[in-house]
Amino acid sequence: WKAFLWPLIVTRSIEMRTVEVGIALLQNQYSSDFPLQMTAATLVALPIIVLFFFTQEYFMEGINLSGTNK
Hints:
3 helices, elongated, 66% helix
């Protein structure tokens, strides 16, 4: 709710709204277009997934180092 309600209240222009608010605005009063909302959520998450795919060995190395006792 932190990433949704506060930006919804504070922002006035559509250009300044966050992604969460933008995806929620795709919903109408009487119906929802769930495929469109899921597509938008997937497109938002895609850059992070691609970044993790290319840097996963560094993440896993850091996790392995932090879990070992010396």
